[in-house]
């Protein structure tokens, strides 16, 4: 029994030792991998003792302590910057670790050097030799990091050294290093602009790079250093179009921006007429089910493009499916500014798809859609329901959606749109409801045939319990009635009946203006309206008082001999004479002198004074002129106010630009160049790379056709292309590029058939040789 207890105690002791050792090992490994159980907040401790301990850690021989010291130093830098303390005193200790074999330590050292190199330029130069040695390191990451840090050190003295490093790395075998070299070019240019000629030569060399990983940074450097040198793009234009799909997302955006500027200077305008008129021509052939020859001729006439112009559009079309909203907007920019207006139908669905993302992206996309809808509303007519307002939409999204819906309203969808807007009017949000009423008014103005329905719907809103809805309805009704001055008496009478329930000053002033402007059709009602307005004159708002004065003056101009009306108007003028607002007093004084000028002439003296007689005759003459032209002065024809769209003026900016979203030009914005009047020489884009690309493409087609059967002859492919082109379905618009791809594949298939036929025919008899020659001649004529 004692032996058993002794063994059990020994076993427990050994287990405790083993557990302690395992725990220490786990903690040590966690520290090595940066997975300490304690919080990383201890790095931000700024006590003097901790700061002194950093120097000891930087001088340590263990990488773990050096890394811990560098992390603490960088964290202290962030903390001390906010307190105004300079920690560049550690620069010599940090520079000593620049040659460390630990990549993580090097990264931390590079971060510190980039931050304080400008404050310690002499010490920063001590590390240049290390960076130059790293440019020949076997690890591509080290070579790229060394160049990145050298170009990031903002010391003008080292600009020649940076230039040499860029020249060395631009021929590196690693595309990552070449990409870093291209990224360093703008930094070197901003550091020393006198190096521009040398940097342009480097960019010219890098443009020959066939790596899709590198080309985006090269084009970015081109845009920063020499954006005006479009002549450098001539031999690389087709290569850029082909590499567009394989480039990274932000590289695609930069490349398409460059190709847009290039195409605007090298190709003719595909839309010689205005986009809106061209769209009307195409709209009938596209949306109708008629397959007439005239529509086919219109299609063929519209799509005559330069082959290189068509290559750009075809290369971009597949990117409409990109997950990056910036890429999709860049493709939209290409098609909107370069493609024929009939090709722009592809843009509706990709843009609508982006509306399912974050609200910030939604706002940018909707701003671009609103701008496009002002010129080409047919692009989004079939997607009206996608712009219906959701309950979770913020105000800036709601306003843009309603603006777009009014811009794309047509005879086919106006009924659905008005029903939707009527639901918005019921919203408890006053701003949203008034915006919906304004949208109804814009629909009535854009489509006069629907004005009657819109007016009837707005008249029903006069009995709403929401004062804002009633006021906005009256204002919109006033604007619509100005467009139909001959048939508005019934509407005005209904407005007068509802005036007692309307308390909003702007709405009451609008009703009084309508009664005065069209008082000729309201002979019995208008004086009574003036009587009621005179009773409440002292308690009305200033804008209502002004319209009351105008109403009285207009009625006097129609009935100059009515004594009761004159007395009523005199009473209103007397009230206005002592009003607190000086605008009302001035208006009353003006109307008194204009209308009641002939009053009280009996008090003038007898004709003994010749001067007074002359003055009296002049006054009578002036009075006669004013009386004869009083109606023209007070009741002149006034045009209905035009309510500009909030997006008005945005169409002068490029689609997808920040200036378009903000609706004003920002620094750095450049407008698109004008289209050339004469077609430039297209042979400038010919290069040896095109021939090698064609040979490689033909070789790939031959190798793939060896294992495939050719199931579609040329005629069937042509009929398929024609059928798809004539009967196009917008829901499957992403397949629009299949026709062109099928056509190319058919040509390559035909070429491979010819080669296979020639190889097999070489072993035939002389009797078959004549038949083969005849077939070859027939195919040659077909090619020609």
UniProtKB/TrEMBL annotation:
Subcellular location: Endomembrane system
Gene3D superfamilies for the chain: Leucine-rich Repeat Variant
Coiled-coil zones: none
Region (Disordered): 271-293, 673-784
Main localization of the protein described in the UniProt heading: membrane
A Pfam family assignment: Adaptin_N
Bias kind Acidic residues: ranges: 754-770
Occurrences of domain Clathrin/coatomer adaptor adaptin-like N-terminal (ranges): 52-595
One GO molecular-function entry: clathrin binding
Example of a GO biological process term: vesicle-mediated transport
UniProt xrefs under InterPro entries: AP_beta, AP_complex_bsu_1_2_4, ARM-like, ARM-type_fold, Clathrin/coatomer_adapt-like_N
Function, in words: Adaptins are components of the adaptor complexes which link clathrin to receptors in coated vesicles. Clathrin-associated protein complexes are believed to interact with the cytoplasmic tails of membrane proteins, leading to their selection and concentration.
Membership in a protein family: Belongs to the adaptor complexes large subunit family.
Protein name: AP complex subunit beta
Originating species: Ambispora leptoticha
